[in-house]
Amino acid sequence: MKIPLRIFAFHHVCNHFLPSVGRVSPQKFDYFLSQIAKRKISTLQLKDVPNLLMKKGRVPCAVLTFDDGLRCFFEHAFPLLTDRGMEATVFIPTFHVGKRASWDYYSYPG
User: Fold this and answer.
1) Residue 40 to residues 17, 34, 84: CA-CA distances in angstroms?
2) Cβ-count burial of 54 within 10 angstroms (0-12 exposed, 13-18 middle, 19+ buried)?
3) Is the CB of residue 46 less than 8 Å from the CB of residue 65?
4) Antiparallel, parallel or unpaired: β 89-91 and 61-67
5) What distances in angstroms separate CA 99 from CA 51, 57, 61, 70, one per listed residue?
6) Other beta carbons less than 10 A from residue 88's beta carbon
7) Cα–Cα nearest to 93, from 63, 65, 67, 74
C-alpha cells in the first residue's frame, strides 16, 4: 500500500544568499505552505509518523523538518507555520545552544 507521506528537510529560511542545501526564501516557503494547504495535505511532527502508519484510511500528510534550530526558523518559518496552523519538527543540537556551530559559518551574525 502506498503511504501518502512526504518528508521535507529545510535548513535556512532567509532572504540573503547562502551556499547551503536546504535554503529557501521566506516568500518561497510561504508559497510552499500555500500549496500544501491548497492540496489539503496535513502537516505533522516527525514523532507522530509511527501512529500515522498504523491507521487505516490514511490522509495525505507532510513532515517539515528544520535542522539546527537556527534563528531564521523562528524569525521567518515559525510565524508562517503558526499563521496556517501547521506543524514542524526542529532538530536542535543542544551542545551548541547559545553558541555558533562550527559548521554554520554561512549564517548571518548573531
Assistant:
1) 31, 10, 12
2) exposed
3) yes
4) parallel
5) 35, 45, 34, 11
6) 21
7) 67
Tens of pLDDT along the chain (110 residues) come to 566 789 999 988 988 766 666 688 999 999 999 999 999 999 999 999 888 888 766 778 999 999 877 788 999 999 999 999 999 999 987 776 676 666 655 554 43
Please give the single-letter amino acid code of residue 35: Q
C-alpha 71: how far from its chain's center? 13
Q: Cell numbers of 102, please?
A: 562550527
Read off the DSSP letter of residue 94. G
Count how many Cα atoms sit within 13 Å of the Cα of residue 89 in the half-sphere of its side chain. Answer: 15
